[in-house]
Amino acid sequence: MVAGILLMLIIVPLMLVMLGLYYITLAIWELRVGMDRTRYVKLMFGGLVLVVIAPLLFIIYWYIGIMNLKFI
């Protein structure tokens, strides 16, 4: 049980960071091609949110949830 929770605590933020890096890579590629600048902004913003903010919020909400559990 504890191993599953810790594995989830590592896997979910890692997957969010990997998806964010993929979006950033697509944004850089879009900027290199130079066809659609609004797509570049959307991909870069989404990638940075997934890399920086989403894992932090996930860990904070997870910690708050664990602290609010009532142990008998």
Estimated share of beta-strand residues: under 5%
Structural class: mainly alpha
What composes the largest sheet? none
- With helices defined by DSSP (H or I, 4 residues minimum), what is the helix count? 2
* Element-level helix/strand string: HH
**Please, what is the oligomeric state?**
single chain
Average pLDDT: 86
Tell me, briefly, the overall form. elongated
Secondary structure: helix percent? over 70%
Unreliable residue runs: none
The total count of strands amounts to: 0
Radius of gyration: 17 Å
Keywords, please?
mainly alpha, 72 residues
Short description:
With 72 residues, this protein is mostly helical. The protein has helices at residues 2-33, 37-67.
SSE order and pairing:
Elements: H1 2-33, H2 37-67
Describe the structure.
There is one protein chain. The chain is an all-alpha fold and 72 residues long. The protein is 88% helix and 0% strand. The chain is elongated, with a radius of gyration of 17 Å. The two termini are 17 Å apart.
